[in-house]
Design goal:
The complex is a heterodimer of chains A (118) and B (119). Chain A is mostly beta strands. Chain A is built from no helices and twelve strands. In chain A, 0% of the residues lie in helices and 55% in strands. In chain A, strands 2, 5, 6, 10, 11 and 12 form a six-stranded mixed β-sheet that branches. A four-stranded antiparallel β-sheet of chain A has the order 3-9-8-7, with no helix packed on it. In chain B, strand 7 and strand 8 form a beta hairpin. The termini of chain B are far apart. Classes of the chains: A mainly beta (118), B mainly beta (119). The interface between A and B is medium-sized, with 30 and 28 residues.
């Protein structure tokens, strides 16, 4: 069965510190997709990144970077030089094909609340 | 180019009343997902629908909850005889297809959610 674990419930850092949010997943499929979403205080979920299981290349986008390691089933997210505006809840998600319907279901972790203090 | 629209944004109901939550997917999207977020908890999958079909309702409580996505009009999540434990934020997401295959750039687009408060 699919499962996403975000063991860090809440993290507090001081502005300009680097912070890494952990995500560990479980899946039986060899083909699957991983996502990160940001939920700022306004409530709406904002897409950050999607990664395919066959592409282990790490990605950097500005101050954001993602480290995908299939060997440890992890897809960690690092924010460099954090800013107050980064304060939000961050969700990791996994999608794999449902064998019976052939469609995809998205499973989310419980989220990590990041507080960046000025 | 409107995104996923959910209404109402806030809904207050008394115990025993019915709650109807609406979700209009992004234009061109025919797949809708509903999630529930309880205070200080993550997003819990409830149901996945295509037009006129329920694809996966494994996350829906067996009683009082139902969902539909008619050929015309928005998707509706209906909660009958609400109880205080139903108080939560309900999010709808849509995608243009049910798969995220390697050739696609598929992802979920979320609405702003409906905050249901049961008094």
């Amino acid at each position: 069965a699919q499962k996403v674990t975000q063991a860090q419930t809440e993290i507090s850092v001081v502005e300009k510190e680097d912070v890494t949010l952990d995500c560990v997943y479980e899946t039986r499929d060899t083909t699957y997709y991983l996502f990160w979403y940001k939920q700022p205080p306004s409530g709406e979920l904002v897409f950050l990144i999607r990664r395919n299981s066959f592409d282990e290349q790490n990605e950097i986008s500005g101050r954001y970077s993602w480290n995908f390691q299939k060997s440890t089933s992890s897809f960690n997210f690092t924010i460099t030089a954090s800013q107050v505006v980064d304060s939000a809840v961050y969700f990791c998600a996994l999608s794999e094909a449902q064998t019976t319907s052939g469609t995809y279901k998205y499973i989310f972790g419980t989220g990590t609340r990041l507080k960046v203090l000025a | 180019n409107a995104g996923v629209m959910q209404n109402p944004r806030h809904l207050v109901r008394r115990r025993g009343q019915e709650a109807r939550l609406r979700c209009s997917p992004m234009k061109g999207h025919s797949h809708v997902y509903w999630y529930r977020q309880l205070p200080e908890e993550g997003l819990k999958f409830m149901v996945y629908l295509q037009k006129e079909n329920i694809i996966d309702e494994s996350g829906m409580p067996k009683e009082r909850f139902s969902a539909e996505f008619p050929k015309e009009g928005p998707s509706i999540l209906r909660i009958q005889q609400v109880v205080r434990g139903d108080s939560a934020a309900y999010f709808c997401a849509s995608s243009s297809r049910g798969g995220v295959g390697p050739a696609s750039n598929e992802k979920l687009f979320f609405g702003s959610g409906t905050q249901l408060s049961v008094l």
